């Protein structure tokens, strides 16, 4: 087993509600670094955090006729990439007899269920 704990963060696309409210994205990602901007105070220095994985799924895709969200940008991360990076190793370790847990944390509507279960042709880890 290579590591005990890995931390990943994923930015999902805006919901319909967020689009209707003309929300602005206050997050950017550069490699493993996630940068948060304060929309109420543009003079405040952004906060920077580094994780094992910073997944950008906010934009950079188009929806195919079958519903699959296909990348149009090298920064976009789809369900397959998340699974290949994290899920596949967890399954391998579980098959080897190691205890494995995945903890998905975030506010309601933040994309936890989508990342784990997917939707339609955008399969999750199920």
Please outline what is shown here.
This protein is α+β, with helices and mostly antiparallel strands and 126 residues long.
Question: Could you characterize the architecture of this molecule?
Answer:
This protein is of the alpha+beta class and 126 residues long. The protein has a three-stranded antiparallel β-sheet, with no helix packed on it. The radius of gyration is 16 Å and the shape is globular. The mean pLDDT is 86.
Key traits:
3 helices, alpha+beta, two-stranded parallel ribbon, 126 residues, three-stranded antiparallel β-sheet, 24% strand
Q: Mean pLDDT, as a whole number?
A: 86
Radius of gyration: 16 Å
What is the number of helices? 3
Q: Helicity, in percent?
A: 10-25%
Low-confidence stretches: none
Shape: globular
Structural class: alpha+beta
What's the topology here?
Blueprint: E1 8-11, H1 16-20, E2 27-30, E3 33-36, E4 47-50, E5 53-56, E6 61-63, E7 69-71, H2 79-95, H3 112-117, E8 118-119, E9 122-123
Parallel strand pairs: 1-5
Antiparallel strand pairs: 2-3, 3-4, 6-7, 8-9
